[in-house]
UniProtKB/TrEMBL annotation:
The keyword Glycosyltransferase does not apply. It comes from Streptacidiphilus fuscans. Keywords: Cell inner membrane, Cell membrane, Membrane, Sugar transport, Transmembrane, Transmembrane helix, Transport. The keyword Membrane applies. This is Xylose transport system permease protein XylH. Coiled coil: none annotated. Part of the binding-protein-dependent transport system for D-xylose. Probably responsible for the translocation of the substrate across the membrane.
Length: 406
Protein backbone atom coordinates (compact mmCIF):
# COMPACT_ATOMS: atom_id res chain seq x y z
CA UNK A 1 0.00 0.00 0.00
CA UNK A 2 1.11 3.55 -0.74
CA UNK A 3 2.59 4.81 2.56
CA UNK A 4 0.79 8.11 2.11
CA UNK A 5 -2.52 6.33 2.69
CA UNK A 6 -1.39 5.18 6.14
CA UNK A 7 -0.51 8.63 7.43
CA UNK A 8 -3.96 9.39 8.83
CA UNK A 9 -4.07 6.04 10.67
CA UNK A 10 -0.70 6.46 12.39
CA UNK A 11 -1.48 9.82 13.96
CA UNK A 12 1.37 12.22 14.76
CA UNK A 13 4.00 9.65 13.86
CA UNK A 14 2.42 9.24 10.44
CA UNK A 15 2.71 12.96 9.74
CA UNK A 16 6.34 12.96 10.82
CA UNK A 17 7.11 9.98 8.57
CA UNK A 18 5.33 11.66 5.68
CA UNK A 19 7.33 14.85 6.18
CA UNK A 20 10.60 12.89 6.32
CA UNK A 21 9.66 10.95 3.18
CA UNK A 22 8.92 14.16 1.28
CA UNK A 23 12.20 15.79 2.30
CA UNK A 24 14.20 12.71 1.34
CA UNK A 25 12.36 12.61 -1.98
CA UNK A 26 13.18 16.23 -2.76
CA UNK A 27 9.65 17.55 -2.16
CA UNK A 28 10.71 20.55 -0.12
CA UNK A 29 7.81 22.84 -1.01
CA UNK A 30 7.99 26.22 0.75
CA UNK A 31 10.19 25.00 3.61
CA UNK A 32 13.46 26.63 2.41
CA UNK A 33 11.94 30.06 1.78
CA UNK A 34 10.00 30.09 5.06
CA UNK A 35 13.12 29.14 7.02
CA UNK A 36 15.11 31.76 5.12
CA UNK A 37 12.49 34.41 5.81
CA UNK A 38 12.56 33.69 9.55
CA UNK A 39 16.37 33.92 9.55
CA UNK A 40 16.23 37.27 7.71
CA UNK A 41 13.75 38.69 10.22
CA UNK A 42 15.79 37.50 13.20
CA UNK A 43 19.06 38.92 11.85
CA UNK A 44 17.66 42.36 11.07
CA UNK A 45 15.74 42.51 14.35
CA UNK A 46 18.97 41.83 16.24
CA UNK A 47 20.74 44.54 14.22
CA UNK A 48 17.95 47.10 14.66
CA UNK A 49 15.07 46.64 17.09
CA UNK A 50 12.89 48.98 15.00
CA UNK A 51 12.91 46.50 12.14
CA UNK A 52 10.15 44.37 13.65
CA UNK A 53 7.74 47.29 13.99
CA UNK A 54 4.32 48.21 12.65
CA UNK A 55 5.76 51.05 10.56
CA UNK A 56 8.21 48.74 8.79
CA UNK A 57 5.51 46.10 8.24
CA UNK A 58 3.31 48.74 6.63
CA UNK A 59 6.21 49.90 4.45
CA UNK A 60 6.83 46.36 3.22
CA UNK A 61 3.13 45.71 2.58
CA UNK A 62 2.84 48.87 0.45
CA UNK A 63 5.88 48.43 -1.74
CA UNK A 64 5.78 44.68 -2.31
CA UNK A 65 2.52 44.75 -4.27
CA UNK A 66 3.69 46.27 -7.58
CA UNK A 67 6.55 43.84 -8.13
CA UNK A 68 4.47 41.07 -6.58
CA UNK A 69 1.82 41.44 -9.29
CA UNK A 70 4.50 41.22 -11.98
CA UNK A 71 5.78 38.09 -10.28
CA UNK A 72 2.33 36.45 -10.27
CA UNK A 73 2.14 36.70 -14.05
CA UNK A 74 5.66 35.30 -14.32
CA UNK A 75 4.70 32.29 -12.20
CA UNK A 76 2.25 31.25 -14.94
CA UNK A 77 5.00 31.58 -17.56
CA UNK A 78 7.61 29.75 -15.48
CA UNK A 79 5.18 26.87 -14.98
CA UNK A 80 5.50 26.34 -18.74
CA UNK A 81 9.27 26.30 -18.41
CA UNK A 82 9.50 29.57 -20.38
CA UNK A 83 10.39 33.19 -19.60
CA UNK A 84 8.87 36.62 -20.23
CA UNK A 85 11.49 39.38 -20.37
CA UNK A 86 9.00 42.07 -21.37
CA UNK A 87 6.99 42.41 -18.15
CA UNK A 88 9.06 45.34 -16.88
CA UNK A 89 8.59 47.32 -20.08
CA UNK A 90 4.90 46.39 -20.29
CA UNK A 91 4.37 47.63 -16.73
CA UNK A 92 6.02 50.96 -17.57
CA UNK A 93 4.01 51.24 -20.78
CA UNK A 94 0.79 50.53 -18.87
CA UNK A 95 1.48 53.35 -16.40
CA UNK A 96 2.28 55.73 -19.25
CA UNK A 97 -0.84 54.72 -21.17
CA UNK A 98 -3.05 55.25 -18.14
CA UNK A 99 -1.51 58.67 -17.50
CA UNK A 100 -1.98 59.77 -21.12
CA UNK A 101 -5.60 58.59 -21.21
CA UNK A 102 -6.69 59.93 -17.82
CA UNK A 103 -4.57 63.07 -17.49
CA UNK A 104 -3.88 64.28 -21.04
CA UNK A 105 -7.19 63.23 -22.61
CA UNK A 106 -9.48 63.44 -19.57
CA UNK A 107 -10.89 59.92 -19.86
CA UNK A 108 -12.62 58.51 -16.78
CA UNK A 109 -9.91 56.86 -14.61
CA UNK A 110 -11.82 53.57 -14.32
CA UNK A 111 -12.26 53.41 -18.11
CA UNK A 112 -8.56 54.21 -18.45
CA UNK A 113 -7.70 51.36 -16.05
CA UNK A 114 -9.83 48.92 -18.08
CA UNK A 115 -8.26 50.01 -21.39
CA UNK A 116 -4.79 49.72 -19.88
CA UNK A 117 -5.41 46.17 -18.67
CA UNK A 118 -6.83 45.20 -22.07
CA UNK A 119 -3.73 46.66 -23.72
CA UNK A 120 -1.50 44.58 -21.44
CA UNK A 121 -3.51 41.46 -22.23
CA UNK A 122 -3.29 42.15 -25.99
CA UNK A 123 0.49 42.67 -25.79
CA UNK A 124 0.96 39.41 -23.90
CA UNK A 125 -1.35 37.52 -26.27
CA UNK A 126 0.55 38.87 -29.31
CA UNK A 127 3.89 37.74 -27.90
CA UNK A 128 2.44 34.37 -26.91
CA UNK A 129 0.94 33.90 -30.39
CA UNK A 130 4.29 34.61 -32.08
CA UNK A 131 5.94 32.10 -29.75
CA UNK A 132 3.24 29.42 -29.92
CA UNK A 133 2.17 29.62 -33.56
CA UNK A 134 5.22 30.87 -35.46
CA UNK A 135 7.75 29.09 -33.29
CA UNK A 136 10.05 31.98 -32.40
CA UNK A 137 11.72 31.22 -29.04
CA UNK A 138 10.02 32.97 -26.13
CA UNK A 139 13.35 34.43 -25.02
CA UNK A 140 13.76 36.24 -28.35
CA UNK A 141 10.13 37.36 -28.62
CA UNK A 142 10.00 38.83 -25.14
CA UNK A 143 13.49 40.35 -25.43
CA UNK A 144 12.26 42.18 -28.53
CA UNK A 145 9.19 43.20 -26.55
CA UNK A 146 11.40 44.44 -23.73
CA UNK A 147 13.02 46.90 -26.15
CA UNK A 148 9.99 47.76 -28.29
CA UNK A 149 7.47 48.43 -25.50
CA UNK A 150 10.01 50.56 -23.66
CA UNK A 151 10.32 52.67 -26.80
CA UNK A 152 6.54 53.06 -27.00
CA UNK A 153 6.49 54.10 -23.34
CA UNK A 154 9.10 56.82 -23.95
CA UNK A 155 7.12 58.05 -26.95
CA UNK A 156 3.94 58.31 -24.90
CA UNK A 157 5.63 60.14 -22.04
CA UNK A 158 7.07 62.75 -24.37
CA UNK A 159 10.00 65.07 -23.73
CA UNK A 160 9.33 65.45 -20.00
CA UNK A 161 9.63 61.73 -19.37
CA UNK A 162 7.15 61.91 -16.49
CA UNK A 163 3.43 62.54 -16.07
CA UNK A 164 2.26 63.32 -12.55
CA UNK A 165 -1.00 61.67 -11.53
CA UNK A 166 -3.49 63.86 -9.65
CA UNK A 167 -5.56 62.65 -6.73
CA UNK A 168 -7.53 60.03 -8.69
CA UNK A 169 -9.16 56.70 -8.04
CA UNK A 170 -5.88 54.96 -8.86
CA UNK A 171 -4.10 56.67 -5.97
CA UNK A 172 -6.84 55.68 -3.53
CA UNK A 173 -6.87 52.17 -4.94
CA UNK A 174 -3.17 51.49 -4.39
CA UNK A 175 -2.18 54.04 -1.73
CA UNK A 176 -5.15 54.22 0.63
CA UNK A 177 -6.65 52.11 3.40
CA UNK A 178 -10.32 52.70 2.64
CA UNK A 179 -11.54 49.25 1.64
CA UNK A 180 -12.14 48.13 5.19
CA UNK A 181 -13.71 50.89 7.27
CA UNK A 182 -11.11 53.47 6.21
CA UNK A 183 -8.26 52.00 8.21
CA UNK A 184 -10.41 51.34 11.28
CA UNK A 185 -9.16 48.65 13.64
CA UNK A 186 -12.22 46.52 12.90
CA UNK A 187 -11.41 46.57 9.18
CA UNK A 188 -8.18 44.57 9.51
CA UNK A 189 -9.81 42.03 11.81
CA UNK A 190 -12.76 41.72 9.42
CA UNK A 191 -10.36 40.88 6.62
CA UNK A 192 -8.56 38.35 8.82
CA UNK A 193 -11.88 36.74 9.77
CA UNK A 194 -12.90 36.45 6.10
CA UNK A 195 -9.59 34.76 5.29
CA UNK A 196 -10.05 32.20 8.07
CA UNK A 197 -13.65 31.55 7.06
CA UNK A 198 -12.68 30.98 3.41
CA UNK A 199 -9.92 28.61 4.49
CA UNK A 200 -12.29 26.61 6.68
CA UNK A 201 -14.95 26.40 3.96
CA UNK A 202 -12.37 25.22 1.42
CA UNK A 203 -10.83 22.56 3.71
CA UNK A 204 -14.07 21.10 4.99
CA UNK A 205 -15.61 21.22 1.52
CA UNK A 206 -12.70 19.21 0.18
CA UNK A 207 -13.05 16.74 3.05
CA UNK A 208 -16.74 16.27 2.26
CA UNK A 209 -16.06 15.67 -1.44
CA UNK A 210 -13.32 13.13 -0.72
CA UNK A 211 -15.57 11.29 1.74
CA UNK A 212 -18.31 11.08 -0.88
CA UNK A 213 -15.82 9.77 -3.44
CA UNK A 214 -14.53 7.09 -1.05
CA UNK A 215 -10.89 8.25 -1.12
CA UNK A 216 -8.56 9.09 1.79
CA UNK A 217 -9.27 12.45 3.41
CA UNK A 218 -7.76 14.64 6.11
CA UNK A 219 -9.28 14.15 9.59
CA UNK A 220 -11.26 16.93 11.19
CA UNK A 221 -8.60 17.45 13.87
CA UNK A 222 -6.01 18.28 11.21
CA UNK A 223 -8.37 20.69 9.46
CA UNK A 224 -9.07 22.47 12.75
CA UNK A 225 -5.34 22.69 13.45
CA UNK A 226 -4.63 24.16 10.00
CA UNK A 227 -7.46 26.68 10.38
CA UNK A 228 -6.27 27.63 13.86
CA UNK A 229 -2.70 28.20 12.69
CA UNK A 230 -3.93 30.41 9.86
CA UNK A 231 -6.13 32.34 12.29
CA UNK A 232 -3.18 33.03 14.59
CA UNK A 233 -1.03 34.20 11.66
CA UNK A 234 -3.57 36.50 9.97
CA UNK A 235 -4.88 38.06 13.18
CA UNK A 236 -1.29 38.72 14.26
CA UNK A 237 -0.63 40.48 10.94
CA UNK A 238 -3.87 42.46 11.35
CA UNK A 239 -2.84 43.50 14.87
CA UNK A 240 0.59 44.67 13.66
CA UNK A 241 -0.83 46.66 10.70
CA UNK A 242 -3.48 48.21 12.94
CA UNK A 243 -0.70 49.71 15.01
CA UNK A 244 0.20 51.71 11.89
CA UNK A 245 -2.59 52.67 9.44
CA UNK A 246 -4.44 49.43 8.88
CA UNK A 247 -4.41 47.07 5.89
CA UNK A 248 -3.41 48.82 2.64
CA UNK A 249 -5.85 48.57 -0.26
CA UNK A 250 -3.04 47.34 -2.49
CA UNK A 251 -2.44 44.37 -0.19
CA UNK A 252 -6.15 43.47 -0.23
CA UNK A 253 -6.18 43.49 -4.05
CA UNK A 254 -2.97 41.44 -4.16
CA UNK A 255 -4.28 38.75 -1.79
CA UNK A 256 -7.64 38.49 -3.58
CA UNK A 257 -5.88 38.00 -6.92
CA UNK A 258 -3.62 35.37 -5.38
CA UNK A 259 -6.63 33.41 -4.12
CA UNK A 260 -8.31 33.58 -7.55
CA UNK A 261 -5.16 32.52 -9.41
CA UNK A 262 -4.50 29.71 -6.95
CA UNK A 263 -8.03 28.43 -7.54
CA UNK A 264 -7.54 28.60 -11.33
CA UNK A 265 -4.27 26.68 -11.21
CA UNK A 266 -5.26 24.00 -8.71
CA UNK A 267 -9.01 23.57 -9.22
CA UNK A 268 -9.71 24.06 -12.92
CA UNK A 269 -9.07 22.09 -16.07
CA UNK A 270 -7.15 25.00 -17.55
CA UNK A 271 -4.79 25.06 -14.56
CA UNK A 272 -4.07 21.35 -14.91
CA UNK A 273 -3.32 21.91 -18.59
CA UNK A 274 -0.70 24.52 -17.69
CA UNK A 275 1.06 22.08 -15.36
CA UNK A 276 0.82 19.34 -17.99
CA UNK A 277 2.36 21.46 -20.75
CA UNK A 278 5.12 22.60 -18.40
CA UNK A 279 5.83 19.01 -17.37
CA UNK A 280 5.84 17.33 -20.79
CA UNK A 281 4.81 19.03 -24.04
CA UNK A 282 4.64 15.89 -26.16
CA UNK A 283 2.57 14.01 -23.60
CA UNK A 284 0.22 17.01 -23.42
CA UNK A 285 -0.27 16.97 -27.19
CA UNK A 286 -1.02 13.25 -27.14
CA UNK A 287 -3.55 13.86 -24.35
CA UNK A 288 -5.44 16.26 -26.60
CA UNK A 289 -4.32 19.54 -24.97
CA UNK A 290 -4.01 22.51 -27.32
CA UNK A 291 -0.46 23.54 -26.48
CA UNK A 292 -0.54 26.75 -28.61
CA UNK A 293 -3.74 27.85 -26.87
CA UNK A 294 -2.26 27.30 -23.42
CA UNK A 295 0.94 29.13 -24.29
CA UNK A 296 -0.86 32.09 -25.85
CA UNK A 297 -3.28 32.53 -22.96
CA UNK A 298 -0.52 32.20 -20.35
CA UNK A 299 1.40 35.04 -21.96
CA UNK A 300 -1.84 37.05 -22.10
CA UNK A 301 -2.17 36.51 -18.34
CA UNK A 302 1.43 37.61 -17.84
CA UNK A 303 0.80 40.78 -19.86
CA UNK A 304 -2.33 41.55 -17.85
CA UNK A 305 -0.53 41.21 -14.52
CA UNK A 306 2.38 43.28 -15.86
CA UNK A 307 -0.07 46.07 -16.70
CA UNK A 308 -1.72 45.77 -13.29
CA UNK A 309 1.68 45.87 -11.61
CA UNK A 310 2.54 49.01 -13.55
CA UNK A 311 -0.67 50.64 -12.38
CA UNK A 312 0.13 49.67 -8.79
CA UNK A 313 3.62 51.18 -9.00
CA UNK A 314 2.23 54.36 -10.57
CA UNK A 315 -0.51 54.59 -7.96
CA UNK A 316 2.01 54.22 -5.15
CA UNK A 317 4.37 56.89 -6.52
CA UNK A 318 1.59 59.14 -7.96
CA UNK A 319 3.48 59.42 -11.23
CA UNK A 320 4.10 57.58 -14.49
CA UNK A 321 7.72 57.85 -15.57
CA UNK A 322 10.70 56.07 -17.05
CA UNK A 323 11.36 54.42 -13.69
CA UNK A 324 8.26 52.29 -14.28
CA UNK A 325 10.19 50.29 -16.90
CA UNK A 326 13.31 49.93 -14.77
CA UNK A 327 15.03 46.64 -15.81
CA UNK A 328 15.54 45.94 -12.11
CA UNK A 329 11.77 45.51 -11.79
CA UNK A 330 11.96 42.59 -14.22
CA UNK A 331 14.90 41.04 -12.42
CA UNK A 332 13.25 41.38 -9.02
CA UNK A 333 9.95 39.94 -10.28
CA UNK A 334 11.70 36.89 -11.72
CA UNK A 335 13.77 36.54 -8.54
CA UNK A 336 10.63 36.69 -6.40
CA UNK A 337 8.94 33.87 -8.30
CA UNK A 338 12.03 31.65 -8.15
CA UNK A 339 12.95 32.45 -4.55
CA UNK A 340 9.35 31.68 -3.56
CA UNK A 341 9.63 28.15 -4.92
CA UNK A 342 8.56 28.19 -8.57
CA UNK A 343 10.84 25.96 -10.65
CA UNK A 344 12.73 27.40 -13.61
CA UNK A 345 12.34 24.03 -15.32
CA UNK A 346 8.55 24.19 -15.53
CA UNK A 347 5.70 22.10 -14.15
CA UNK A 348 6.17 22.95 -10.47
CA UNK A 349 5.17 25.95 -8.42
CA UNK A 350 2.26 27.94 -6.98
CA UNK A 351 1.18 31.55 -7.23
CA UNK A 352 1.83 31.90 -3.49
CA UNK A 353 5.50 31.72 -4.51
CA UNK A 354 5.14 35.31 -5.68
CA UNK A 355 4.00 36.40 -2.22
CA UNK A 356 6.76 34.54 -0.37
CA UNK A 357 9.46 35.61 -2.81
CA UNK A 358 8.61 39.30 -2.88
CA UNK A 359 8.25 39.24 0.90
CA UNK A 360 11.82 37.93 1.14
CA UNK A 361 13.14 40.60 -1.25
CA UNK A 362 11.32 43.50 0.39
CA UNK A 363 12.30 42.26 3.86
CA UNK A 364 15.95 42.33 2.78
CA UNK A 365 15.63 45.73 1.12
CA UNK A 366 13.90 47.37 4.09
CA UNK A 367 16.39 45.88 6.54
CA UNK A 368 19.42 47.01 4.55
CA UNK A 369 17.87 50.47 4.14
CA UNK A 370 17.36 50.78 7.90
CA UNK A 371 20.99 49.78 8.43
CA UNK A 372 22.10 52.49 5.99
CA UNK A 373 23.70 50.09 3.50
CA UNK A 374 23.99 51.15 -0.14
CA UNK A 375 22.15 49.79 -3.17
CA UNK A 376 25.10 47.70 -4.35
CA UNK A 377 24.98 45.64 -1.15
CA UNK A 378 21.24 45.09 -1.63
CA UNK A 379 21.76 43.76 -5.13
CA UNK A 380 24.59 41.46 -4.06
CA UNK A 381 22.59 39.96 -1.21
CA UNK A 382 19.44 39.56 -3.34
CA UNK A 383 21.51 37.91 -6.08
CA UNK A 384 23.00 35.50 -3.55
CA UNK A 385 19.53 34.58 -2.25
CA UNK A 386 18.33 34.00 -5.83
CA UNK A 387 21.32 31.77 -6.59
CA UNK A 388 20.68 29.79 -3.40
CA UNK A 389 17.03 29.30 -4.42
CA UNK A 390 18.01 28.00 -7.87
CA UNK A 391 20.58 25.65 -6.33
CA UNK A 392 17.94 24.28 -3.95
CA UNK A 393 15.56 23.80 -6.87
CA UNK A 394 18.19 21.95 -8.92
CA UNK A 395 19.17 19.70 -6.03
CA UNK A 396 15.51 19.02 -5.31
CA UNK A 397 14.88 17.94 -8.91
CA UNK A 398 17.97 15.72 -8.85
CA UNK A 399 16.78 14.09 -5.62
CA UNK A 400 13.32 13.51 -7.08
CA UNK A 401 14.83 11.86 -10.16
CA UNK A 402 16.99 9.57 -8.07
CA UNK A 403 13.96 8.59 -5.98
CA UNK A 404 11.79 8.06 -9.06
CA UNK A 405 9.40 10.95 -8.35
CA UNK A 406 10.38 13.38 -11.14
Amino acid sequence: MDPRLLVRQEGLRGYFDEFRRKVRGGELGSIPVVVGLIIIWVIFTVKDSKYFSAANAEYISYYMVGLGLLSVGLVFVLLLGEIDLSVGSVSGLAAALFAVLSVNHGINPWVAVLLTLLAGMAIGALQGWIFARIGVPAFVVTLAGFLAWQGVMLWLLGSTGTINLPDTALNHLFSGNSFFLNGDVAGAYLLAGLAVLMMAVSLFGQQRRRKAAGVPYRPTSELLLRTGMLAVAVFLVAWVLNRASGVPNAMVIFLVLLVICDFVLRRTRYGRQIFAVGGNIEASRRAGISVPMVRTTVYAISGTFAALGGLAIAGTTSAAGQAGADPNNLMMAIAAAVIGGTSLFGGRGRVWSALLGILVIESINSGLYMLGLTLDIQYMITGGVLLAAVIVDSLSRRTQKSSGRA
